[in-house]
Design brief:
It contains two helices and no strands. The protein has 43 residues and is mainly α. 0% of the residues are buried.
Length: 43
Amino acid sequence: MNSRTKNILFWVVVGLFMILLFNLFSVPHHEPEEEVIFSEFMS
């Protein structure tokens, strides 16, 4: 792989990691939502 490909791949991985961390830390602050059954959701 050339330098540019490695750089792009690096930033994609960093971006995914940041999104993962953001989701990990934002979930506990929400109240647990009731599970919605798919058939009820569609009706």
